[in-house]
Amino acid sequence: MLLFDGSEVAQPTQQRFMRELERFADKIRHVTESSPSPPDWFPWRKDPIRIAILDTGIDVKQDMLMRIALETKCIQECCGFVIERDSNPDPHDFQDLNGHGTHVTRLVLNAAPSAVIFIAKISDEITIGPQNMHRIARAINWATEKKVNIISMSFGLDCRDSDIDQAIHAAVNANISIFAAASNDGGNKPRVYPSSRSHGVLCIHASDGLGNDGGISPTPQRRKDNFSTLGIGIPSKCKGIPTHISGTSYATPIAAAFAADVLEFARHKCDLSEHETKVLCHFDGVSKILRLMVEQEVETRGGYDYVMPFHLWTTNRSDVQVAEMITEIVNT
Fold this sequence. Notes:
This protein is α/β, with parallel strands linked by helices. It has one domain: CATH 3.40.50.200. It has helices at 13-34, 64-71, 100-111, 134-145, 162-173, 248-269, 274-281, 283-292, 319-329; strands at residues 2-3, 50-55, 75-80, 116-121, 150-153, 155-156, 177-181, 201-207, 227-230, 234-238, 241-245, 305-306. Strands 3-4-2-5-7-8-9-12 form an eight-stranded parallel sheet, sandwiched between helices. It has a two-stranded antiparallel ribbon with strand order 1-6. Helix 1 (13-34) runs parallel beside helix 6 (248-269) and helix 4 runs parallel beside helix 5 (162-173). The longest helix has 22 residues, at 13-34. The mean pLDDT is 92. GO terms for molecular function: serine-type endopeptidase activity.
């Protein structure tokens, strides 16, 4: 397994994207805070959207945001899977020794302010050997048991793994949407597993801040979704020091957060039944949610489907109209 962490590259276009991201996050935060709680006879609308992040954990020793998120329960629960096959997961082992998972979690916290996050630590390093693939499968199963809505996986494998396949299958059947990084090898290699699966996993590519190809994603595939969002020159911090990060690893949690935001909006603004809510949260429903955030009736940007929330929340489209468009997903 390889975490798709690219070099530190500053890009001026990301500043515009990050301003738009912050504006959208404020909108979702306002929707959550200003909307009345759903009535008791709608229990499926009571809980916020839940996101599981499978990565290298979080740095609670040197990163104040991670500590605050834990204390305020924005990060609901952590669990360590850096264990032998027959050992029990360790709920106390979530310290990030690499930094990758902390970057990913920071992006989700910033882009999905109303979501509840679950951290599954699957590695201390940038790679996992074939003998440790069980960590990923067990982490997916754990996330399924926690009844998350979304799983974000910023890594890829050179070949399929049957245990991981079974775990993904169970998660999809539980109406969980899984996001995975495409890879950082450009046209030299195709999508890697699990983003290469034909169904059940949303493959995410990296763009610059204006939606242009970031130059690291695999070649877009014909007659398939080729979702992309910002993955180049993203501002972050490492041990308190500002830095910039690049990679499909980082586009993946941003796309997952955008999907979570739309689901959170729907929880308050769409009058959905329990069955309709499950349909919307399913892989097919979330695929259509991402499609709503792609420019309509225009050519793709270099073959990629660029995801930006304000393609859905346009200046001349009200929240009521957006809610109607989201509701239409479950009726088609």
